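seq as requested:
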Amino acid sequence: MQDLKFSVIQSELHWEDADANLASFEEKIWQLNGSTDVIVLPEMFTTGFTMAASKNAEFMNMRTFKWMKHMSEQTGALILGSYIVSVHDRYYNRLLWMEPNGNFRTYDKRHLFRMANEHKTYAPGESLLISTWKGWRICPLICYDLRFPVWSRNRWDAIAKRPSYDVAVYVANWPTARIEAWDTLLRARAIENLSYVIGVNRVGQDGNGIEYNGHSSVISPRGETIFTNEGAEMVHTLELSANSLQAFRDRFPAYLDADEFTVEYEHYEESDFGM
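struct tokens:
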């Protein structure tokens, strides 16, 4: 593994206006200085966190899919972000993993935020996604998933003789009213899983009058906050150290004493991809 550059984009979102959001994020992506390996966008980055799924949903391989494919190809970076997708008359809060060559994977949000009736609008995902990019195993998750540690538990891979993933990425629309929980849980997930954790949130006010103040963060495997930003739009690139990760895991291999359990998930190596 070489060091990996992550670029996080913390932004206001135009309420239920995909065209405006795609134009805005395209401008922000071109603000990136130099090369990057991974670009992370917030949850429902084309609409904001809306329950108007029938109005805003897209079929796969349509506008947002094509936009992410184009942005990934142009930047040479893996792009992660979720949006509303319609599949066989069901709606999903779906994260798209898009690579520069057009290879992609998807993760459907498992834990739906019932306090906003998300569980009445969207279908839950059934499988965890762990995939490999430039030698790093990455586990992308969505917002409310952060509160459920069993789902994102980093297990020992007996075949590869390493933990299942190296970095967990949470894309979110996490409101200001509960931002202390966001900060605390990001650090907890890093500590218990001995992995880097990246959380990308939005800022501004949505169409329901809910305020968001960001706190997009990068957390070390020790639980230390490497980077965080409150309140403002920003585009920030940070390099994760492979040597630091491995050295800490070698000195403190707590995952070897973890309890046994089973969670259904999908793992993909880069060679597994195909359209």
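The longest strand covers residues 78-87.
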